[in-house]
Input
Amino acid sequence: MLLFFSALLIGISKTGIQGIGMLTVPIMAVAFGAKPSTGLILPMLCFADLIAVFYYRRVAEWRYIFKLLPSALFGFGVAILVDKMIPPEGFKLLLGICLLFAIFVMLWFEWKGQQNTWTNHWWYGPLFGLLGGFTTMIGNAAGPVMAIYLLSVKMPKLSFIGTNAWFFLVVNYLKLPIQVWVWDNITISTLTLNLIAVPFILIGGYLGVKLIKILPEKQFRIFTTIVTCLSVLLLLF
Output
């Protein structure tokens, strides 16, 4: 039941309500264990990415994707190198603190009614790309990283979803060989479970498309910000 519920959330998050998919990380970790759960979640994410890219293929902002991808690939390498060195609790705490600071800065500029001048610096996009690549490799936990970045550059909701979909399509499919041959946590057994979960991903994808059509732009930003903050708090606690 937890697997099916997680599949439903993944579908909804990929095609509509961004950030809600982060809730699947602790749910699946409780049900299957921290590291084995990443091998179960990744193929579901890859399938949901295909649905999102097919539906939102024309609305992605590629200039932002090109800013993020090179450093995200570097983040992959860093994650593989430090996998054995940093305990998961320490990593989650450090990441949570960094993201909490990023959220605070974003909300501060919005409260002041000013443009976030940090987004104009050359290092801003690559920094989030590095964090995104690192966190997605360690624990499929890059959702809040991308949400904060795309919210901070004031991206409209459909462009937000399309850009997010293309970015994760690339990085998630690049992760597959590493998960199969290096970490050995994607097997015939896990893929069988993934296959059973496919109908729930499809239902979630349909619900996400319907929900995003009725959710106004302002409410989308508010809801995404709230869900992202909750996701960061999950990392901290």
Q: What stands out?
A: The mean pLDDT is 83. The first helix runs from residue 2 to 15. The chain is about 80% helix and 0% strand. The CA atoms of residues 47 and 162 lie 15 Å apart.
